[in-house]
Amino acid sequence: MATLAAVKETKNKPRPLRRFGFGLLYLVLGLVAVFQIYPLVWLFFFSLKGNAEIFGRSPFALPEEWRWDNYVRVWTDGNINQYFFNSVFVTVTAVILTVLLASFVTFAITRMNWKLNKFVLLLFMIGYMIPIHSTLVPLFQFFLKMDLIDNPISIILAYIAYNLPLTIMILVGFYSTLSREVEEAAIMDGCSIHRLFFQITLPMTTPVMTTTVIINMIYNWNEFIFVNTFISSDRYKTLTVGIQNFIGQYLTDWGAIGATLMISIIPILIAFFFLSNRIVEGLAAGAVKG
Hints:
mainly alpha; globular
């Protein structure tokens, strides 16, 4: 028995080549992690410096004087608090409407039998191929006629229109894997189409909806072009555009810019830290049929 146990223990021990392979893999992943995390650490130290220290010392040096007042100054004097809440409002509103509308469209395409369902899906996929820069002038003219320039509604509508094709594409892949037996049984029991969607189909799509919410949130939060084109007053600016307040004609407050960038990154980092696995789960759930 002792000999048999010794043989099993020997077999369970990793071979030298295998251990070397795992060690090399961990080393490569560690280097990748360092290269990914270092820019954030550098930006954090950058945000705690003044202009003289930024340009007078090595960019890799730690701050001589930790200027936490940069964060206080940008939040109060720099109007960043208003820009932050504007970003939250626009992002949350656009994400909710985009995911809800995309769910409506996907349900109609995959669950209802009508002649133009494939054609409508093709139109949305073509919309995904249109470059964002080619839409700025037509959208500006349209919003100008609708009196929506310098109005957050224009940004929300632009975000919805731009994100709908990708959201629908992800949802269609997931909907095609859902079993229809539950839905058919509900219809046999007299369930209406509205109850079928909101009480049965929509709850089953929670994993992929979480994925689309995160993807839309990241894009809307970091978007710059639409806000810079359609919004001119400080009242409705978001964080990405509000950073320009610290860029002057003769002097640029680089420490304040770094502090603003750190404030804008924190919500995205929190979302990734807690929900990054959901992105992979949702995409994988719709990638394999059956």
